[in-house]
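Weekly modeling sync, notes
Attendees: S.R. (lead), two postdocs, one rotation student

Agenda item 3: backlog of single-chain predictions. S.R. asked that every request posted to the team notebook include the full sequence so nobody has to chase files. The rotation student volunteered to paste the first one in as an example of the format we agreed on. Action items at the bottom.

Example entry:
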Amino acid sequence: MLATFSCVLRLPVLGVGRADPALELGETRLPDGRRLCWAAFGDPEGTPLLWFHGTPGNRTQIPPATAREAALLGIKIVCIARPGVGRSSDVAYASFAHAAPDVMEVADDFGARQFGIVALSGGGPYALACAHEFPERVAGVAILGGVCPVVGPDAAEGGIVALSARFNSILGRLRVPLGETVRAVVGLMGPISHPAYRGFARIMPEGDQRVFAAPEMEAMFVRDLVAANRNGFRGLFNDVVLFGREWGFRLHDVDVPVRWWHGDADSLVPLDHARRASDLIPQCELLVRPEESHLGGFGVTDEVLSWLVEIGV
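Predicted structure, as returned to the notebook:
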């Protein structure tokens, strides 16, 4: 009933511009028949670079300026929609480590024997899991405001994400109806997308406001969520459930170069969490962004791509 309800009440998006289209939209079929959908941006003949969207997010959560920079650098960005997001088949992983083999299937589709990963927010744990499980294939990981462990020996204390551990059991049982409920709500927000986005931007720190001010960023964010809403939002709660569990590996065993950008005003993932995580990862450099919250890192993706090129990705 709820799934049908959410499909019927999908209102048009008003007041928001058009987002730049992807070079290509496609999917990778996994050995068990599931599919992971992806979108490609940048140089169509470039070196593949995997991109893990934030939570929530979908396969088109790529800033237009980032796609243009990638094209100039000879990079083909491949953004993967995680299970339960958009058209990607739903599955509840037991831990972040269990997701890594599926990601390698996508890399194989692009002929990428070795590649870099860029990860935002909730994509961070997935990127580090891939680096841990397949260090011979992951040449480097760039993280923007990544979620950090809140359970187990690597955990940091406090923070909003820690609530996912406290309520993990009930979130795990209710992930499907919760996902459908959010899908229904997002479907109703089309006509107020523009004022809602602008209102959210106004309460962000100055660094984030500069990023959010660009009309093309608004179009990217809103259109990306609208596309996810057409098919599935279960991936949002798949991520939240995993945030409240042990990751399936230890951070001190991640043995690839990692560079981590994090805002000092981040209210979702406190800077202290990023400091602890980066201290535990052997080859990790933490770059603190002043007066930025959780999404300000979108403004430094030129630095991110340049670093990955520098280390030979």
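Discussion: group reviewed the output briefly. The first strand starts at residue 24 and ends at 29.
Action items: rotation student to repeat for the remaining queue; S.R. to check formatting next week.
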